[in-house]
Task: inverse folding
């Protein structure tokens, strides 16, 4: 009986480790789509804290990956205490609101990863980005894909659909229209698989299946849009 229990526990541990490995690959997949835009560029990264310092200390912190590849990186976030901690660690981190920042600088690339769905005034954010981009610059946005079949499936099964701090959700068409209204032309759109599995739970397994089976446009949870000033 003890042997069977030990074997069962080992199997569960092995599965969890495999899932965590897949999770890391999914996070890397998002950055691989961003990497070519930031390499050797002067970059502004907006929303760098990603909720709290636990995200900063993880192995999949987007800002750290950008710092490793870009020529120069400035990061901003509204969370003052966390920004102070990052400054102590040597990062060029500044406390600022994504909807009204004014850094008196221009950048080759602005990255906003999983940010716009948290904002109250996305148009003001885009206007600030436009003012800080060089004429040949690029704005790289990632946000939940509003057309992903994962979200209605979760709703039907009464699971949490979105982060409770989200204020809006976009699909390819609505985000492109919004960018156009704020003096941007969409250059590229990509759908990225970024399911983050942390446990063997029906919701996580369902999400994994739904992100791997249908076409990317309606399965993958992350929408990446690259735009340039018009």
Result:
């Amino acid at each position: 009986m003890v042997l069977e229990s030990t074997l069962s526990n080992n199997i569960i541990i092995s599965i969890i480790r495999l899932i965590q490995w897949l999770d890391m690959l999914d996070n890397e997949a998002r950055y691989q789509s961003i990497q070519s835009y930031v390499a050797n560029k002067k970059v502004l990264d907006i929303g760098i804290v990603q909720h709290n310092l636990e995200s900063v200390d993880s192995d999949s912190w987007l800002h750290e990956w950008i710092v490793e590849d870009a020529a120069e990186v400035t990061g901003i976030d509204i969370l003052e205490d966390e920004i102070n901690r990052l400054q102590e660690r040597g990062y060029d981190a500044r406390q600022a609101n994504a909807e009204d920042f004014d850094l008196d600088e221009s950048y080759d690339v602005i990255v906003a990863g999983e940010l716009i769905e948290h904002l109250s005034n996305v148009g003001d954010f885009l206007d600030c980005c436009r003012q800080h981009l060089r004429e040949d610059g690029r704005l790289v946005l990632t946000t939940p894909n509003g057309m992903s079949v994962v979200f209605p499936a979760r709703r039907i099964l009464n699971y949490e659909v979105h982060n409770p701090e989200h204020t809006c959700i976009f699909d390819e068409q609505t985000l492109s229209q919004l960018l156009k209204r704020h003096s941007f032309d969409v250059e590229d759109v990509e759908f990225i698989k970024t399911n983050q599995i942390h446990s063997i739970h029906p919701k996580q397994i369902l999400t994994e299946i739904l992100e791997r089976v249908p076409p990317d446009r309606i399965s993958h949870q992350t929408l990446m849009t690259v735009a340039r000033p018009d």
Q: What stands out?
A: Residues 15-25 have pLDDT under 50 and may be disordered. The first strand starts at residue 42 and ends at 46. The domain at 2-229 is CATH 3.40.50.150 (Rossmann fold).
